[in-house]
From TrEMBL:
Residue segments, region NMP: 30-59
Protein name: Adenylate kinase
Gene symbol of the encoding locus: adk
Any one GO molecular function term: AMP kinase activity
Subunit structure: Monomer.
Cellular localisation: Cytoplasm
Keywords, alphabetical: ATP-binding, Cytoplasm, Kinase, Nucleotide biosynthesis, Nucleotide-binding, Transferase
Lineage, opening ranks: Bacteria, Bacillati, Actinomycetota, Actinomycetes, Kitasatosporales
Amino acid sequence: MRIVLVGPPGAGKGTQAAYLAKNLSIPHISTGDLFRANISQGTPLGKQAKQFIDAGDLVPDSVTIGMARERMAQPDAVGGFLLDGFPRNVAQAEALDAALGEDDLALDAVLDLEVPEDEVVKRIAGRRICRNDSSHVFHVSYNPPKRDGVCDACGGELYQREDDNEDTVRKRLEIYHTQTEPIIDYYKAQGLVVTISALGKVTEVTDRAMEALKRDAAA
């Protein structure tokens, strides 16, 4: 299957992408990973991206699309892929359709993770990360540490990232609504959107997504 995963910040896209890709036996392709891989390998596209990033500018769509096309052409993606973080706007969605069309391919589904805005704010603003190891992540409500402000795993100090405060989260949501959310209507016009609730345990959301995708494929 060729799937695009969409949803607001805090919807759990990264977590769900990893589980879904494993269950569907397709690669998880995220823009963050694409940027890091191309920059670390010093590819032509990576060098272009680095110039923009170092200058504090947004990486142009043409560079992002170029990276995505190269990754989708690799052998492990021949049978399908799950795109996470791309496309971010309608122009990128149109470019993706055009790129796939050149190879007589098309998307099978666009999985929309739906979560109320207040829940997004609660999820992100309540997140606490260990200063010693950023993979140790807690939440003041959903996964609190045994001791307030102290990492259960290593005893390190837990802190809130600057961009995890409520004001910043709401600004990120505003950007999502104006730039990324319009791609849902774009794909709805093609009959590709499958919307599920992203509330509940990780495994519950994954099961919900798998069932929805199966129903969509059988329709």
